[in-house]
Amino acid sequence: MRNTQRATLLLGLLLAAAPVWAAPTLYSIVPGEDGNQVSFLSKAPMETVEGKTDQATGSVSVDLEDLRAGCRVEVRVDLASIDTGIGKRNQHMRENHLETDKYPHAVFTADSVVATSGAALAPGASATLTLAGDFALHGVTRRIEVPVTVTRSADGRALGVASTFDVKLADYEISRPKFLIMKLDEVQHVTVALTAHSRGQEG
After folding, report:
1. Per-residue pLDDT for 14 more than 60?
2. Which of 128, 18, 147, 143 lies closest to 67 in space, CA to CA?
3. What's the CATH number where 49 sits?
4. For the chain, what is the largest distance between any 2 Cα atoms, rounded to a whole number of angstroms?
5. Are 162 and 148 in contact (CB under 8 A)?
6. Which residues have a Cβ under 8 Å from the Cβ of 53 and sit 6 or more positions away?
């Protein structure tokens, strides 16, 4: 009897000391929502061209108690919806460079955290992560690392996701756009600002 009591007590102590792993929280990105924007900036000798869209969808799955445990992100951008402010230029870009009929989306799928500025993300706090994942564009998929700032709302129901990174057109077999006599830069500067809303913890 005494041995049984000791075994029960020991088991209880072990269970109490065991770490409690929080289930990841899932957030969804809704296309067309106010404040959501994906844009690119390209410089030409006499002009800077900016294209932007709010047609991004996706999800963020993150352990808010331990960011190092993993952060899975998928963002899918509708390339045909990108607006540069000039209709003819939009059409030229879609048909001759992005070829959106064949390759309608750009997709970033992050599956690991390379670095983080903090372990947990409390309500109202921000953290800087470096995410590694696959970026698919124009039929080409490449492994990249992207710096991301995530900000949790005060009520914990929303997550702001912001990032800036460069895309080299040649890496994705995209010819450099030329409008009139201006040929745009080989490197496109991409900026992402999205808000994802909580769907609760994953089961």
Report:
1. no
2. 128
3. 2.40.128.110
4. 92
5. yes
6. 37, 38, 39, 77, 78, 79, 81, 82, 83
> What is the domain range of residue 80?
22-201
Rounded Cα–Cα distance for residues 93 and 99 (Å): 8
Contacts of 193 (CB under 8 A, 6+ apart): 35, 36, 37, 38, 160, 161, 162
**What is the percentage of the chain residues whose pLDDT exceeds 70?**
84
**In this structure, are residues 29 and 195 in contact, taking their beta carbons and an 8 Å threshold?**
yes
Angstrom distance (rounded) from CA 36 to CA 194? 4
Nearest partner of 163 among 145, 143, 148, 144, judged by Cα: 148
Alpha-carbon distances, residue 168 vs 52, 97, 137, 146, 175 (angstroms): 18, 13, 11, 14, 10
For residue 130, tell me if it sits in a domain.
yes
Does 15 map to a domain?
no
Model pLDDT for residues 54-111, shown as the tens digit of each residue: 999 999 999 999 998 878 999 999 999 999 999 999 999 999 899 999 999 999 999 9
Residue 8 lies inside a defined structural domain of this protein: no
Asked, for residue 83, whether it belongs to a domain, the answer is yes
